[in-house]
From TrEMBL:
Name this protein carries in UniProt: O-acyltransferase
Species of origin: Danaus chrysippus
GO molecular function, one term: O-acyltransferase activity
Annotated TM spans: 47-70, 82-102, 114-137, 181-198, 210-230, 250-276, 334-352, 358-378, 390-409
Keyword Amino-acid biosynthesis: no
Active site: H348
Lipid bilayer topology: Multi-pass membrane protein
GO annotation terms (biological process): cholesterol metabolic process
Keywords of this entry: Acyltransferase, Endoplasmic reticulum, Membrane, Transferase, Transmembrane, Transmembrane helix
Superkingdom as given in the UniProt entry: Eukaryota
Comp. bias intervals (Polar residues): 8-20
Amino acid sequence: MSLRKTKNVPNITENVTSNNEKTKDPDFVCRESPLTVLFEQSLHIQAIYHIFVVILLILLINIGVSSVVYGFGDISRGAKLWLFQLAIVLIFYPGITFYAAVRKIIKNNTVLCKLWSIIGITGVVLLELLLIGVPVWDLAKEHLALGSSTVVTCEMFRFAMKMCSVAVALVERCNQGIKPLPSFSHYVYFLFAPTLIYKDMYPRTKKVRWGVVVGHLLEVAAIIFYNSFLWERFILPYWSNYGKEPTVEAGYVVRGMFACILPGVISFLCGFYLLLHAWHNAFAEMLTFGDRLFYEDWWTTSRFSNYYRAWNRIVHAWLRNHIYQPLAPRAGRALSTFIVFFVSSIAHELILILSFGFFYPVLVVEFGVFGVLMLPLTASGRRFPRLYNLLMWLVLFIGNGLLWSLYAMEYFARKNCPKLETDNFFVPKSWSCPEVVLKPNWAFQNPFNIIY
């Protein structure tokens, strides 16, 4: 869909960074995404891509659109929330120009300057709270469909981080008045550019290749249907009736968890490709945004510290610039790293809470606890790279399988179990309904049922 030869890529320079360059250079340069480079240079990777396309085409024969329609239900309400978020970040621009104009007038009065700085900081904080608070309140009051609420909450955090980045980048310029503020058109460009770090200039390509844009958007749509197939064929058969009976056998729960491991990892990889490759590259192409290193080759790493940096360079750069670097000189590297993990895990968990409509902090435990523990455990990955890369994939398989199964169990337990007065938003329903029991003389059974 989006395969293209390197010679046809306009104004794109070096595509592959060396190990010493990875994640350390904050500057923007023209470069392609790693998967784009692999598709262009390797017939083997192209063949694997074509296999997945053929599998999807075959699945489309037997896949319905009901899950997709249900997942993006009440799209008009989701669109209204998104437009509200967009209005807030657009209001921020005239607000910051007004702040800079007043600051220029009172620049010789120290007391007024300090007071005006406090008012400016308060204004930014209030806008951030309004941007996050209204969607959270609305989604908590009445649940929105899973797909629609996920889009709303992700956009909420994206706009919040962009507004913070602009405020930090322009605060000195506003206070000193040495350099003019960016134009409104450049501000709007930044709002939709695939980056969270504000710059006055970004490397640009010479033209928009609309065929590439359409190809990436088709990939986005295809992956949505692919995940719908995984939901219908793996989640619903195992968990849709969970909670309808008062008891469930432990063996059935364990088998369901193992059954979720493979579709969980496939969904994880599809989600990565959808957002960090197809979606970002589509917008980068439309906006002629030259730097497309949105991720690195995290799948080959042997250390979780490299995985977290390479998985999503866009978010990693924002966390590094706006949380880690300001805190590290004062709080130390270890505590600053923990705070970064904590903030990131809370944000991810809030997206899941608002999307599913219940509190079940599985991701916080996996990401904020076990994810942090994996940092020192895999610190010696350079000595045994193949072994530790195997360990990384084992952890990813198990972790995604648990996410798929535990959230599905909780979702259907709240849907199918009898409603009680003791039900609580913060207490998982699946812990008490249904009751998980062991068979008398329960033991592992031969799954192939072979008789000797």
